[in-house]
Design a protein that fits this description.
Distance between the termini: 38 Å
Largest sheet: 4 strands, antiparallel
Number of strands: 7
Shape: elongated
Oligomer: single chain
Structural class: alpha+beta
Strand content: 25-35%
């Protein structure tokens, strides 16, 4: 496990630490799997219908080609979502560690520490909560890389940026703690 104490600023205290429980990553693999199979059945059914409906070989080829382009696009989308949800997502988050201090939210993954100061969080909320596990999302609006307030999280220039603690236990409790900590920091700054 990562030692977050090595990354603390003067006087900063850890109030939450966790590791991603990648076995609890909520994915819609059942939904994606059903849609994937339904689209394949629709694809095959429409080809059989076209073969029975049209007599001209040219019409059959055009209709089957149009049907296939549409269906294969959706088969690829839902097939990838299914594979990602079952295999790849868990691999991506297997070695992800999370920490919240009285000042910052931090994520350590892929040998890299990423953090954002709580006082600039525009929104903190829970997603995909199921069986006591879920994600806590920390969003930041109107960030400024040059100010040093937010570390650069990606190469994009998105207007909304943030961190996510993925598949953690009791996400609602952490969300409440994070909101209360952020509000306390903002209150102290506005004195």
């Amino acid at each position: 496990m990562i030692n977050f104490e090595d990354f603390l600023e003067n006087g900063e205290k850890i109030i939450y630490k966790s590791k991603c429980n990648y076995k609890k990553i909520s994915s819609n693999f059942l939904f994606n799997g059903i849609l994937f199979l339904a689209i394949i059945c629709l694809h095959v059914g429409m080809i059989i219908f076209a073969l029975n409906k049209y007599q001209n070989l040219g019409e059959i080829i055009i209709v089957i080609l149009l049907i296939s382009i549409l269906c294969v696009t959706f088969e690829l989308i839902f097939g990838y979502a299914l594979i990602y949800g079952i295999f790849l997502a868990k691999k991506d988050y297997k070695d992800s560690y999370y920490c919240m201090t009285d000042r910052r939210a931090m994520v350590y993954e892929k040998n890299k520490l990423i953090f954002v100061y709580l006082q600039i969080m525009s929104d903190i909320f829970v997603t995909k909560e199921k069986d006591g596990y879920g994600n806590v999302v920390f969003n930041v609006d109107n960030f400024d890389y040059e100010s040093g307030i937010v570390t650069k999280l990606s190469n994009s220039n998105n207007e909304e940026l943030g961190l996510t603690f993925v598949a953690i236990e009791k996400p609602t409790q952490l969300c409440e703690l994070a909101i209360n900590t952020r509000d306390k920091l903002l209150k102290e700054l506005n004195k």
